[in-house]
Amino acid sequence: MGIKEQASEVKKAQVFLGAISLKIRNKALENISRVMKIRKDEIIQANKLDMEKAEKENLSAPLLKRLKFEEDKIDEVCSGMESLIGLSDPVGQTILARELDKDLELYQVSCPIGVIGMIFESRPDALVQIATLCLKSGNGVILKGGSEASNTNRILTKLIGEATVAAGIPQGWIQLAETRQDVSEMLDMEDRIDLLIPRGSNSFVKYIMKNTSIPVMGHADGICHLFVDESADIPMAVELTDDSKTQYVAVCNALETLLVEKSAASEFLPKMKERLESKNVELRGCNVTRTFIDVKPANEEDWSTEYLDYILSVKVVDSMDSAIEHINKYGSGHTDAIVSSNTGKAEKFMNLVDSADVFWNCSTRFSDGFRYGLGAEVGVSTNKIHARGPVGLEGLVIYKWRLKGNGHKVADYSSGSSKFTHKIINKEYKSLN
């Protein structure tokens, strides 16, 4: 079956999936978790084949880390599914209820987007997270993972499809695309795909955005900052720098640039250097930074680089205003944090930094759908429409306007014989069944 036929299958199935009860959708999620645990040896064996091939092809260490999908990762995604099952139904929620006139009631009700086209790199766990979020929110999905994870992606898609059909989900709601040609064809399927979510390099995401008329949601780089101001608790600042950078370096919410207010530099930088170098982090500093600690010089390119590795650029700034200016110039609008004991400065920082996620006195690594309680995520959006930040269930639904009347005609309001009340009512939309 070609990608166009696959997309048609998804679209056909999604019409019915969007109307299926929460009970059946949750049962399908339970089935996926159960089947993955029962057949984990098959999944691990498929992933082993991908890992062996990737190592022969000398894939980078960050990509290899993302590709690995063993028992701990399987347990993690299954735990995520349990969390997802516990979340309320995102579909059919009343957003607004308004009486236009007596017995003429308007409801704004959440509904699935439709068919999601998801293009991502070597992260089999992402495939499971994306598929299960789409299922819970009533969306069909076409998944295009990296070729380096082809064996793992195939077995996961197969198991998810079988487990969900057994629970009563329409067959064909999930499909796997496997070639670059498939991606090219997907870009021209505005009649079959409602939303594209690419996860990959900056150049790849920009290419997708420029070459399709389908709405695109996502982010390119994750150039995240931590700013240590003059009032910061120094031990806390060291801990948060360490966690933001080294807890997991190969992810979009890892710290890439550390900004330090000059008056805090002499006390903070040596302690930070000792901690991060003990974790084998290569530090690159501006000229002012290098007057406080002995590190490699940073250049202009470092400020706009997403390393995804044990490398951190460090810049000493004169003030918080300078830090904010730097972040808004070089950042990617993903996640930026301040360490400060001054609530006024922290509030100003979070107001003026133009990013999807702004934090005070906590690690940038908290920028994550699972940690937000969203039931994992399909990605992080730096868009300024629809969804922003980690995109979980609420970012995978839109809404319909439903109007219930009793023979009401517009002509009566044009003539003046009837008048609108436009009164907000505290009422949930109820199914007509």
Topology:
Layout: H1 3-17, H2 22-38, H3 40-56, H4 61-67, H5 71-85, E1 94-101, E2 104-112, E3 115-119, H6 124-136, E4 140-144, H7 150-167, E5 174-177, H8 180-186, E6 195-198, H9 202-210, E7 224-228, H10 234-246, E8 255-261, H11 262-278, E9 282-285, H12 289-292, E10 296-297, E11 311-317, H13 320-330, E12 335-339, H14 343-352, E13 357-360, E14 379-381, E15 389-391, E16 397-404, H15 410-415, E17 423-424
Parallel strand pairs: 3-4, 3-6, 4-5, 7-8, 7-12, 8-11, 9-10, 9-11, 12-13
Antiparallel strand pairs: 1-2, 1-17, 2-16, 14-15
Overview of the structural elements:
By secondary structure, the chain is of the alpha/beta class. The protein has two domains: 230 residues, Aldehyde Dehydrogenase, Chain A, domain 1; 143 residues, Aldehyde Dehydrogenase, Chain A, domain 2. It is 41% helix and 20% strand. It contains 15 helices and 17 strands. A seven-stranded parallel β-sheet has the order 10-9-11-8-7-12-13, with helices on both faces. Strands 16-2-1-17 form a four-stranded antiparallel β-sheet, with no helix packed on it. β4, α7 and β5 form a beta-alpha-beta unit. The protein is globular. The mean pLDDT is 93.
